[in-house]
Design goal:
- It is a single chain.
- The protein has 223 residues and is α+β, with helices and mostly antiparallel strands.
- The longest helix is centred in the last third of the chain and has 20 residues, at 140-159.
- The two termini are 30 Å apart.
- The protein is 40% helix and 13% strand.
- The chain has a four-stranded antiparallel β-sheet with strand order 1-2-4-3, with helices on both faces.
- It is globular and about 60 Å long.
- Flavin mononucleotide is lined by residues 11-12, 14, 95, 120, 165-169, 191, 209.
């Protein structure tokens, strides 16, 4: 698989098979992803990879609180800016509508939407959960470095025949995740990520999201 194929075949997978992923594969992905660039080579990423019992314990801890606290524990950062303007607002709306359409859930069917959203906290059935943290002293440039690291993980997963779904949804359970992992207090949870084998028969995995045409985000001059 070349880089173009990895980029084009990556998508947010929201239904996984229970097939386990060997630790050697997870290790190989992270070993290579550490080659991601970072300003000043700070390498500001920290990641916890969980499977088996530790993962089951974390999922159970969140599951036990989901009903009483559907919005979680708040978030340490704003997942989206308040008053998100256009064209971003419409893109976000469409991505949600397109996703629910794949499973026949209408806008009015709020219970079904919540049930699907709650699947985030089951990692959509994936056997591996990755939890990405950043040191609190870091600012926007280092958050961008973390993003490049995460994309490297997602592309390397493709090379190993695996799929992923980045999951900011985990950030609203930062206390529980931090406690379960015994993460040091200087680390802030940015995102979870499900990793595993895609369930090819799941309708939700048929979603292929749009992208704006190049002319909308790039200007090429002087060629
Ligand atoms: C940092 C980050 C966090 C995300 N968090 C979630 C999430 O919590 N739950 C979810 O279902 N998708 C999540 N996504 C997936 C996005 O919705 C998805 O990347 C976007 O709609 C584009 O679709 P694609 O990944 O299939 O190309 C996240 C993506 C990124 C990059």
């Amino acid at each position: 698989m070349n880089v173009t194929e990895a980029i084009e075949s990556r998508m947010s997978c929201r239904a996984f098979l229970p097939t386990p992923v060997p630790v050697a594969t997870v290790r190989a992905i992270l070993e290579t992803a550490r080659r991601a660039p970072s300003g000043g080579n700070l390498q500001p990423w920290r990641v916890y990879a969980l499977a088996g019992e530790p993962l089951a314990q974390l999922l159970a801890a969140v599951r036990g609180k989901l009903f009483s606290h559907p919005r979680g524990e708040g978030s340490e950062y704003d997942i989206y800016p308040t008053g998100l303007g256009e064209p971003y607002r419409s893109r976000r709306y469409k991505c949600g509508e397109d996703m629910y359409a794949t499973i026949g859930v209408t806008r009015e069917d709020r219970p079904a939407r919540l049930r699907q959203f709650a699947q985030n906290y089951a990692l959509f059935g994936a056997p591996v959960g990755l939890f990405f943290f950043i040191d609190r002293q870091m600012g926007p440039p280092q958050w961008s470095d973390l993003g490049m690291f995460m994309q490297s993980v997602m592309l390397l997963a493709r090379e190993h025949g695996l799929h992923t779904c980045a999951q900011e949804a985990w950030s609203v359970w930062y206390r529980t995740v931090g406690e379960c992992l015994a993460a040091p207090p200087e680390l802030m949870l940015f995102s979870g990520m499900a990793l595993g084998h895609r369930d090819e028969s799941a309708p939700i995995n048929r979603l292929r999201t749009d992208r704006a045409p190049l002319e909308e985000f790039a200007e090429l001059r002087g060629f």
